[in-house]
Amino acid sequence: MLINFEGIDGSGKSTQIELLKTYLESIGKEVSVYREPGGVTISEQIRELLLNSKHKIHPVSELLLFSAARAQLVADKVLPDLENDKVVVLDRFYDSTTAYQGFGRKSVDLEKIEQINEIASLGREPDLTFYLRLDWEESKKRTSHLEEDRMEKAGEEFFKRVIAGFDHLSKTKFRFVEIDAKSDIKSIHEKIIKKLSEFL
Q1: CATH number for the domain whose boundaries are 2-196
Q2: Does the pTM exceed 0.90?
């Protein structure tokens, strides 16, 4: 089973992924967790390039670099783990590309991004997507103590377009489960487990 978590920074993805991993292991599941971009050496190197605030990267280059990192992770880790009956949990997947590079950067039209996403994921779609929805203002509050990387410096209007992109996906993709990220950690986790029980 392939599960991805989506949402802007500060939405609590890392916390919920760790809680989910602990739960799944407690019921006897083997779990692999990977972040995007990253997870394997080449993808981590691309991550360093993409997030380095010293670089000025064209939106199309950014789109293709994220996609290249994804393809390597899927080929090296995701597909082999799924073949070995592991549950794979991703901190971001191609829905982030649609939201950030599609709606946010407006790099190319959405139809082309969907085609690139299919190629970069080697045709593997998530079984379930948890979207932890957070507004821009709350995100800024939660992340104000952190140093901003290149993506995080894109500004308010960019991130509001990104949120609109995630909202659009949540309304149009059946696999999306939207959860209010302002809720307390325990109740969010319980909602995730409740939904997941329909699949296990």
Answers
A1: 3.40.50.300
A2: yes
